[in-house]
Amino acid sequence: MSVMMAKMTGSPSVTPLSPPSPSPPSPSSLPLRAIPGGYGWPVVGPIIDRLNYFWFQGPPTFFKKRMEKYKSTVFRTNVPPTFPWFLGVNPNVIAVLDVKSFSHLFDMEIVEKANVLVGDFMPSVKYTGDFRVCAYLDTSEAKHTQIKNFSLDILKRSSTIWVPSLISSLDSMWDKIDADVANSGSASSFLLMQQFLFRFLTRCIVGADPSTSPEIASSGHIMLDKWLGIQILPTVNIGILQPLEELFLHSFSYPFWLVKGDYNKLVQFVEKEGKEVIQRAQTEFNLTEQEAIHNLLFILGFNAFGGFTIFFLALLSAIGDQKSTGLHEKLRDEVRQKSGSNSNTLSFESVKDMELVQSFVYETLRLNPPVPSQFARARKDFKLTSHDAVYEIKKGELLCGYQPLVMKDAKVFEESPATFLYDRFTREKGGTELLNYLYWSNGPQTGSATAANKQCAAKEIVPLTAALFVAYLFQRYDDITISSGSITAVEKSK
Hints:
Layout: H1 44-56, H2 59-70, E1 74-78, E2 92-96, H3 99-102, E3 111-112, H4 142-157, H5 159-184, E4 187-188, H6 189-206, H7 214-232, H8 244-248, H9 260-273, H10 275-285, H11 289-321, H12 327-339, H13 348-352, H14 355-367, E5 373-378, E6 382-385, E7 390-393, E8 398-402, H15 403-406, H16 461-476, E9 477-483, E10 486-492
Parallel strand pairs: 2-8
Antiparallel strand pairs: 1-2, 3-5, 4-10, 5-8, 6-7, 9-10
Helix pairs in contact: 1-2, 4-10, 5-6, 5-16, 6-7, 6-11, 7-9, 7-11, 9-11, 11-16, 12-16, 14-16
């Protein structure tokens, strides 16, 4: 999800920061180096890398070990999916694992993004109504401009209902959590989080109330889970019993018919209940009705629902992990000082003044980005620069950045780069300058989403919505205990 929310009524703006200092070395002052690493024997090399990636090492260790082996943050390797049933997928990539080299992935003059959302693998367009939705389009394609502008418009128009819809949905979720904790001593956050997000996001993005359809209201989030999960299973590490995961989840694509029934129900719901948004897509952005419906479902299901689920659960986990550091008291004091103890006072404007809340949100995004891997294909031959060398990239080569490792770049995030520091992005620590290097949104946090780039349309609203989520929590509770994804104790504010 992404958008230039500065244009939204009542929404915040981001003032671009001054150029980073000190400036990185110019390419001419750095040595030209051949890209180390390789792809191994055909078939065998990709399979070995796939097993290491998913089974023997896991993605973080997979990239880190190769970075250490080649003494380089830029190298050649293979990434899944691979043989046996991905014969049309080329697993060869050039990994870019420092902030400087990673930034090339977002320069649309030298890279293109057609069909590389998840590397060289692209799920069947049957999952999206036989359309290539905006996420798979390059900025050079006219349809990308139409759909990206449509996405930006959705967020702009939803600005008037975004915060009240969020607060009312949070009220329902946390009332249920309070009851579960009181009755059984704990409440699982995952299911309740997904129900809350589905209800809230469907209202704001589709302009539809899920309660108008009992089946969608009760199962819509499960339908989206299945539709989303089955597309990306070949590329993600689930962590179930091996070798079952390798044999059944990473060896082939799953057919659309497994989720066709549920997806068609979602299509029918959007078609019926989202008529105003669909009509606007047709009259103002020259999209067909079916293009609008399937792009709306992708924005809702993949970008918004999927992304917020991962991100908000990461926020809760960080809140639980940081309890012993005194973070809870500091967040509570800041929230109540800036916005009192009534959730009706929360707004985009109020959380803009909560520096520690925002820093906590940014640090969570730094270490736990909702989309860990970013890809781009070279649009032309160019020279790629890392911190210490220059590499020649050929047109057509695929670049891969593993963001959780990139965001631990010690030359940029100098203070304990692998450690969660909740005040890292505060002015007191000089951390606001680091927003130039926070790339969770397919671009820097100081950038702007436009039709000319691939930066997330909700680049502004996502961290602010997360700040509202955190602020709401510490308005409602004096203290909260979270362990292994469950809320085990809450102390409501007096």
